[in-house]
């Protein structure tokens, strides 16, 4: 059985999250060093510098939205709803989050918020689809 388009987008969003996790970890390792990375991290470290801090904050922001996207896609999958809202909602979520990441790490304000909203509305569309009349 072939997975739905929405499940494939969820898998892609999971992969994108993993890429961000690795980027955030490596950015912290570059600033704090490998000895810190291998330590139990019991000592409070100074805040991450500019770019490593952005990478880390972007990842944390992603992790705030990703569980809701998972719920949206699983709800659509379990109810058998695969329509334009779930399709384009999944595309908007993942595409919006990718562009948001690039803009956030680049330090570009305002426009990045537009893409956060694109992702949020995509997630909302996919989440709402199973509840709308057919």
TrEMBL record:
Subcellular location: Membrane
Transmembrane segments: 88-108, 114-132
Signal peptide from the UniProt entry: 1-27
InterPro entries: MAPEG-like_dom_sf, Membr-assoc_MAPEG
A GO term from the CC aspect: membrane
Keyword tags: Membrane, Signal, Transmembrane, Transmembrane helix
PANTHER family, per the entry: BLR7753 PROTEIN, INNER MEMBRANE PROTEIN
Protein name, as recorded: Putative MAPEG superfamily protein
């Amino acid at each position: 059985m072939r997975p739905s388009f929405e499940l494939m987008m969820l898998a892609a969003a999971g992969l994108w999250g993993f890429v961000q996790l690795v980027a955030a970890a490596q950015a912290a390792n570059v600033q704090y060093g490998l000895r810190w990375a291998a330590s139990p991290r019991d000592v409070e470290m100074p805040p991450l510098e500019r770019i490593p801090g952005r990478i880390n904050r972007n990842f944390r922001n992603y992790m705030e939205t990703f569980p809701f996207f998972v719920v949206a896609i699983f709800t659509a999958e379990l109810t058998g709803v695969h329509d334009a809202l779930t399709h384009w909602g999944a595309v908007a979520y993942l595409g919006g989050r990718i562009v948001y990441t690039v803009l956030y790490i680049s330090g570009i304000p305002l426009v990045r918020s537009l893409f956060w909203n694109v992702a949020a509305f995509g997630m909302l569309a996919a989440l709402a689809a199973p509840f709308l009349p057919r």
